[in-house]
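Q: My labmate handed me this sequence with no annotations at all. I'd like to see what the chain might look like in three dimensions before we decide whether it's worth expressing. Could you predict it?
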Amino acid sequence: MKHTLLFALLMVAASLSAQNASIQGQLQDTDAQAVAFANVALYQLPDSNLIKVEVSDESGIFRLQNLSSGDYYLVASFVGYNNLQTQVLTITDDERRDLAILKMQSSAVALEGATVTARRAIVEIKPDRTVFNVQGTINSVGSDAISLLRKAPGVNVDNNDNISVLGRAGVLLYVDGKRLPLSGQELSNYLQSLPAEQIDRIDIITNPGAKYEAEGNAGIIDIRLKKDKNLGVNGSANATYSQGRYSRGNANASGNYRNKKMNVFASAGGGWGQQFDNMDFVNFQNKLEMVETTRGINNWDFASYRLGTDFFLGKQHTIGFLIDGRTFDGTRDTRSRTTLAQAATPNNLDSILIAQNLANDSRFQNAFNINYRFDNAKGRTLNIDLDYGNYQNDSDRFQPNRYFDPTEQNVLTAVTNTFDTPTDIDILTAKVDFEENLWGGVLGIGSKVVSIVSDNTFLVYNFDETTNTETRIDELSNLFEYTENVYAGYINFARSLSETVQFSAGLRAEQTDAQGLLSVFQAGLEEDPVDLNYLSWFPSAGLTWQVDETNVLSLNYGRRINRPDYNVLNPFNDKQSEISFSKGNPFLQPEIVNNVEIGYTLASLYNFKLAYSKTTDQITRLIAPDEDDPRANFITWENLAEQTTISFNASAPIQVTPKWNAYINLNAFHLDNQADYGEGAIVDVQAFSYTIFQQSTIDLPWQLQGEISGYFSGPGVWGGVFRYESNWSLNLGLQRRFLNDQLNVRLSADDLFFQTGWDGESEFNGLRAVGSGRWDSRRASLSLSYNFGNQNIKSRRRKTGLEQEAGRVGS
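A: Here is what I predict for the chain of 811 residues:
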């Protein structure tokens, strides 16, 4: 089957006319500084038809590939520079034309002290992704990664910090091309401890091609950290202090050294913080009304480091080594008060439950990468990655529960439990990617092997306060070992069908072999082992049509998979109180989604996207009443039969005045959730939701720059059945640069009207829950950042083989 498909794809490609020429070059200004993210348009003579538009990368380099022979000219443009137009370029078949360095002239008026500062657009729409440029925006000051994701176009973050894109759940989070080895609460903690000042941009890839792992129904969000661009020795340092109800702060520094034979780069940082999390719920079940008020205080500190080196073995060969690590220590003090009464007589209380959770969490992770890259600068590349990652998570909790009489003076019953729940995960990967200019296009093939071992310990103890001793509760404790091996291979081909039409097509195959073994301490509680062995095929295809100079249409299709996180397969109960707990589901099936997207771009500025997705076995969270205790409810994971989502996204930059630039983004979607678990447990939910985001940048007197940003999100649905109401936020910012722009001082205020929180309700299987949540979102922040050293170097941006599967580590 594999050989037949490969042969057919190659024959189709070979039947197309050869278009294998290319043009490349580097854009610089008159000070030899790279002009990054400039538009480069290629026109063909004699009619000046627009053939292609590309964007220069961070080093100013651009490449235009898959060209036929003919006469062309280039036009490069960027804010703050005069347009640059080349002379006529006569290109022959298979020619690799290198234009070397092209100088762009500043459009500044030749007056003493006059300068022009070029800014990247807040949002850039590229053929395969949406880029949310964060670096330099004032309203990112004092924020963290999860706060920025709330502002990103097409992205929604729910009340449990679960992230969705274009209305679809199952998005994967990457950092610099490497998938985050976290999910659930641990992912939220990581994103909260990643300062916005360290982030350069966020890439949102809604329909990845065959080269990317098939994991992730909603695609990929890749958080790209700031990189030094200096030659010789250089570095940067920044510090931020933020004050809401509680304070937080962070500081980090990075450095880089490069010569002709090697490049060494390092960074280190740390921070601390505190915030509150408040939730209020009223639950109706089994003719009972329970009013729950929860107040939590989280404290944390973290440290991170990254050290790498690249050795340049001639012009074509590079070998690199990379190690990065992170530590996190935190405490959580969560106190809840729940009143219990008959629903018919809610003022006559039966009892009051006072519960507390005191948790100490620590996380330690290290990842190691060896990378080899071959690039002959003529379209042939080979990339090999070997990776090992170890992720250790420890959590100890002390949980007293006391039932009081309605006067809250007399204790009726008291139970105190302690929890010891360490997790140790090892991930090994080997990845090979090869690309070759062939048959007038680019052929890519590759493979990846992954081996994962996840050891989960879940021990629950009864704590005797009189004797200060612990006794293990065997019926609530277990050991869960999960192993997973994935063997993947892909083929992808892209080329131009004509001067105005480009296509790409690919196929990825993944063989998954997974086993989960539950070890219990009490006979009769055994579960059948998890045993998964399946082969999945993931086709993808894309078509782009340059209708004319200002209109571009695109069509993309992809099939993807989302495997359950390791932690949600453990079936045992994780108690939050005597009547509230969560549990996993060892028999969750992977979800499969088919995505179709239609895009339209006008004048390279205004972008529109219409998308349709159909997901079978959608993995989602559901809240339901407990079968044994009429007072208790739990959160678990289930497969919905299907979810259908139709979404629309529109974005537009607007120059209101020469000193006032704005960006507006609209995202709207309709979803339909369907499932039937029998005995009346039915999910039949439809919802329409939308989010409008805007950001304005204004040049003010005295070299100040101001920003106003905010969003409004309409009502919608989280998970399977939780309907939420609208929420919104307004943010302000101010910045000024000093010392020849090396020192930047920024002041910002987020969520001025404290409207970022959530309100909503769910109804499923006899439980109706009405709730709301707030956290420390209204904040003021001050940031100082300083760049030093030579400002022309560039460190190599590195991807690793752990970018995919490590992200399913859970809390």
